[in-house]
Each structure stands twice: as structure tokens, then as C-alpha cells.
Design a protein that fits this description.
single chain, 405 residues
């Protein structure tokens, strides 16, 4: 189905609004999970880390199915169903006072995310041209950043009325998204909808894309520390509510103010893959610096460096994913790419809680942050090697084509 330019832009605007609300609802409650369950209910940090890891692993792992279904049936219905399931998951979190109930709530919210994540990202790629794509992903990142500003702020205010109130408010936000998603135009993420699983086969045979997805795990491993390790580090140096507010306020405020100008400037000089590598290296530096943080202002300085890295890496990794994907099956490619977040983010959440507990036991507070930095640097180096290979392959293909002509 060919959509008019006006319809494409209307759909794109709605997807950006929906993304903003998703981030607001998600970050309204998730940053407070580690603090609430560890500090208030007395759960071990590793238990909470495992629950967060389960959500990450299930959501991104099952997102492959969401992408395949999007290619076959279109993205709009998948997005609507997903946000409503996520709403039910967050509502159940309001009553989760034991580890099994916490794991159930995280599982339900993960299944909702698995339905809407790949279709919404592939939808942006489907509704834009190649020239429009990087800017669209950047604007989408600004919307997400604004949601990250508002979400933790609202969550920290509602926390005065209890964690259950925060969880129910986040659930209401996702229910509202479900109503808004009905206004989306049809989102076709594949040009061949005749065979279920056709696009998945394409993605699983695309070795450069699979290697890129594996290397991207390091990016997500670091990124999820924003939801577990950084809030716990902030809680150690300041009041828990103030720590969450400042960490997410700085991160999201910089995203809103600087995302577009920073990406616009960098695109004049570097290709998306080079921007991604630089961003990951800066994220590793920011997390590594936390090993030296002996005051809350110093920690905020680390968050600033980390955030500059995310400003570069987040839209760049989406642009590189779209560039490497076969246009016949964008949903499936974005679904497979979500495995990077499934494994990298899941390991990041689990390892974050485990390393924090281990560092406390060994009285070695620098341990988690040094480990995070090494993982990020390994990812950046691997992407550099992949980039050189892809460049050589393109040069060889161009030379062969020229000789054939």
C-alpha cells in the first residue's frame, strides 16, 4: 500500500508521540523498582536485577515474533495490542509484594513490549525515505528523552503516595497510548507479506547483520545501567528520590536539548556507524569514571559523559540497523536486532545487580564500573573491525561491477 506524503508524516508524528508516552510511562516506574524493592521491601539487589533481566530478555527475545507478525499483518494492530498488555503488566506491579509476583508483573509487561517494539521502530523506517530516516530517529530520540524527563519526575512525585500509585499511573499512561494508536495509518513493514517467516529467514542468513546485532549487545549492556546500577550509585551518595530525579533529569534533559544539534553536526563529518562507535566509547568512559565518584556532583559529571555517548549511539544504531536491513522485511530485521537488547540488556541488568552486591561484599566499589567500561570498549572495537570489513566489501563489489561494465 502506497501512502501519501501527508499520511506518512501524520503516522510518523503519531509514532513519535506514542514513543514519548511509552518512555514517560516506562521511566515513571522502572527506575524506582530497584530502589523500592531493595531499599523499602528488603529484596536482594541480585533478585531485582534478575526480575529486570527477565523483562529485558523476554521482551527483546520475543520481539522477533513481533517483527515477523508485523511483516505479515501490519504494525498498527501489534502496537495497540502490545501497549494494552504492557498496561496490564504495570497494573499488576502495583500489587507485587513478593518475588514471584514481581517476576510475573515483569513477564507480563515484557510480553506487551515484545508486541509493540519492533513494529514501532520498523514503522519509522517504513514511513521515511533514506534521507529522512536519521533525522526521524533523532526526533524520535528527543521525544523519548522528553518522556525520560517527565516520567521519573512524575514518578518521584507520585512516590509520596506509595509505589502502587506510581505503577497504576504508568499503567494508565499505556492504556491511553492504546487509544491513540488506533489513529495510526496502516503500517506496512514488509513488501512481501505472502509468507510468514520469509523475512526472518532473510535476517538469519545475513551474517554481517547478525554480527552487528551481536556487537550491539555491549551498547545495551551499558545502556540498561541507567535503570539499576546508576540509581543505586546515586542512592549511595544522595537521597534515593533526589538521585533518581537528578540522574534521569540530566540524562533526559540533555537528550531533549542536544539530540538534534549533536547528531546534525556529527552527520556532517561521520557516517552513522562511526557515530555509533564514538558514542559507545563515550558511554564506556562515563561508566568507568563512576569508579572514581566520591560525591554526587562527580557522579552527575559521569552521567553527563555517559549521556553524550547515548546522544550519539542511540539514533545511530537505529539508522545502521535500517541501512543493513533488507527493505523486503524491515519488521523481521528490527525484531532480530532486538535480540541485542534481549541478551545485552538482560545480562546488563543481571550483572548490574550481581556486581553491585559483589562489590559491597568485597568492599570493592570500583568493580562494576571497570567491568562495564571494558565491555563497552570491546563492543566499540568490534564495530570498528566490522565497519572496515563492510567498507572493503563495498569497495570490492564496486570494483567488480566496474570491471563487468
Amino acid at each position: 500500500m502506497t501512502l501519501s506524503r501527508a499520511t506518512r508524516y501524520r503516522g510518523l508524528i503519531l509514532l513519535i508521540v506514542i514513543n514519548f508516552m511509552m518512555y514517560a510511562g516506562f521511566f515513571m516506574v522502572i527506575p524506582l523498582v530497584s530502589v523500592h524493592y531493595v531499599q523499602t521491601l528488603g529484596f536482594a539487589a541480585v533478585t531485582v536485577g534478575m526480575a529486570l533481566a527477565l523483562r529485558q530478555l523476554v521482551q527483546q527475545g520475543v520481539s522477533v515474533g513481533g517483527g515477523v507478525l508485523s511483516d505479515r499483518f501490519g504494525g498498527r494492530g501489534l502496537i495497540t495490542a502490545g501497549v494494552l498488555v504492557r498496561a496490564a503488566g504495570f497494573a499488576s506491579l502495583a500489587f507485587a509484594t513478593t518475588p514471584p509476583l514481581l517476576f510475573f508483573a515483569m513477564l507480563l509487561s515484557a510480553l506487551g513490549g515484545a508486541l509493540f517494539e519492533a513494529p514501532s521502530r520498523a514503522g519509522i523506517a517504513a514511513l521515511t525515505t533514506e534521507d529522512e530516516r536519521a533525522r526521524a530517529f533523532s526526533i524520535n530520540g528527543v521525544g523519548g528523552g522528553l518522556g525520560m524527563v517527565i516520567g521519573p519526575f512524575v514518578g518521584s512525585l507520585l512516590l509520596d503516595f506509595g509505589f502502587s500509585t506510581v505503577a497504576l499511573a504508568a499503567a494508565a499512561c499505556f492504556a491511553l497510548i492504546g487509544a491513540i494508536s488506533l489513529l495510526l495509518p496502516p503500517i506496512e513493514t514488509a513488501t512481501d507479506r505472502s509468507r510468514l517467516g520469509f523475512g526472518l529467514g532473510l535476517a538469519l542468513r545475513d551474517w554481517p547483520f547478525l554480527i552487528f546485532t551481536a556487537l550491539l549487545m555491549g551498547f545495551w549492556f551499558m545502556w540498561v545501567q541507567l535503570t539499576i546500577s546508576l540509581p543505586l550509585a546515586g542512592e549511595r551518595l544522595a537521597n534515593a528520590g533526589d538521585a533518581v530525579r537528578w540522574i534521569y533529569g540530566v540524562n533526559a534533559g540533555m537528550t531533549v536539548a542536544l539530540q538534534l544539534p549533536v547528531i546534525g553536526f556529527m552527520e556532517r563529518w561521520l557516517r552513522p556507524l562511526s557515530i555509533l562507535i564514538l558514542g559507545i566509547a563515550l558511554m564506556a568512559l562515563g561508566l568507568g569514571m563512576v569508579a572514581l565518584a566520591d560525591s554526587f556532583p562527580f557522579l552527575i559529571g559521569c552521567v553527563v559523559v555517559f549521556t553524550i555517548g547515548t546522544l550519539l549511539a542511540t539514533p545511530a544504531q537505529q539508522s545502521v540497523t535500517a541501512a543493513l536491513a533488507d527493505p523486503r522485511a524491515l519488521g523481521s530485521y528490527f525484531g532480530v536486532n532486538a535480540l541485542a537488547l534481549a541478551v545485552g540488556g538482560g545480562l546488563g541488568n543481571f550483572s548490574g545487580g550481581l556486581l553491585v552486591d559483589l562489590a559491597n561484599a568485597l568492599q570493592a566499589p570500583a568493580l562494576p564500573w571497570i567491568a562495564f567500561a571494558y565491555i563497552g570498549l570491546a563492543s566499540a572495537i568490534g564495530l570498528m573491525i566490522l565497519g572496515n570489513y563492510l567498507q572493503q566489501r563495498r569497495a570490492t563489489a564496486h570494483l567488480v561491477g566496474a570491471q563487468q561494465r
